[in-house]
Design goal:
By secondary structure, the chain is α/β, with parallel strands linked by helices. It folds into 2 domains: about 160 residues, Alpha/beta knot, CATH 3.40.1280; about 60 residues, tRNA(m1g37)methyltransferase, domain 2 (Trp Operon Repressor, Chain A), CATH 1.10.1270. It is built from 9 helices and 9 strands. It has a 5-stranded parallel β-sheet, with helices on both faces. A two-stranded antiparallel sheet has the order 3-4. Helix 4 links the parallel strand 5 and strand 6. Helix 4 packs across helix 6, helix 7 crosses helix 8 and helix 7 runs parallel beside helix 9. The longest helix has 19 residues. The chain is elongated and about 70 Å long. Bound molecules: adenine.
Length: about 250
């Protein structure tokens, strides 16, 4: 997937693309990222990219000219543009999965009070939010979007971290994880994890996952049961019953 990012803080992106999973995804050729510095496109002699809003009001607005010129280099009119904004549709797993199927995405990061509306109208921008809170700019939200979407691109996660493998757990919170040593400061790892009995371990994971979801996110617990309970095996249905009846 080709990702083009337009920003006034291009250096912020080196932190995510030069480290960890996303770096690996770029090295494997699964992602190609182009970060464009909007400031390089301004015709203002002081390199200004923002100005006061018409009609008054607090803050500054990112000007049409530098963003238009930067975008015209990479896009033509009406060709999908994602604009990171707290006014947008809040992302969820379904949106991220669909996004991960695209060949190309272009993301515009706003600042100050936002961008001149004509940019969004002309390029038919899709406004996307990462949650009901406001950040100081669109860069961190863009990183959240890219990181959470990239997990769904085949090959980005290592084999055993496959997101599809988690299908049994679709929409549930994850069970607890443990690693060596078996005992630390008197704290023990649940015995079942050493049993070597894969079925028992699988049941334990499923049970813990259900228990945690019921406790912390009853909304997700109910949705999971509505969507998936009928598809579960008899043994898994028994586990569901046990958790349902727990107080
Ligand atoms: N820019 C500022 N806040 C944001 C949010 N919650 N989501 C996306 N972009 C933003």
């Amino acid at each position: 997937m080709k990702i083009t990012i337009l920003t006034i803080f291009p250096e912020m992106f080196s932190a995510v693309f030069n480290n960890s999973m996303l770096k690996l995804a770029c090295e494997k050729g699964l992602l190609a990222v182009d970060v464009i510095d909007i400031r390089e496109y301004t015709k203002d002699k002081h390199k200004k990219v923002d100005d006061t809003p018409f009609g008054g009001g607090a803050g500054m607005v990112m000007m049409a000219q530098p963003v238009f010129d930067a975008l015209k280099k990479v896009k033509s009119k009406g060709q999908g543009l994602i604009y990171m904004s707290p006014k947008g549709k809040v992302i969820d797993e379904e949106y991220l999965r669909a996004l991960s199927k695209r060949d190309e995405i272009t993301i515009l990061c706003g600042h100050y009070e936002g961008v001149d509306q004509r940019i969004l109208d002309y390029f038919k921008a899709e406004e996307v939010s990462i949650g009901d809170y406001v950040l100081t700019g669109g860069e961190l939200p863009a990183m959240v979007l890219i990181d959470s979407m990239a997990r769904f691109i085949e090959g980005v996660l290592k084999g055993n971290e496959s997101v599809e493998e988690e299908s049994l757990y679709m929409g549930l919170l994850e069970y607890p994880h443990y690693t060596k040593p078996r005992e630390y400061e008197g704290l023990k790892v649940p015995e079942v994890l050493f049993s070597g009995n894969h079925e028992e371990i699988e049941d334990w994971k499923f049970e813990e996952s259900l228990r945690l979801t019921k406790k912390r996110r009853p909304d997700l617990f109910e949705r999971y049961l509505e969507d998936y309970e009928m598809h579960l095996s008899k043994a898994k249905k028994k586990i569901v019953e046990k958790i349902r009846n727990e107080s």
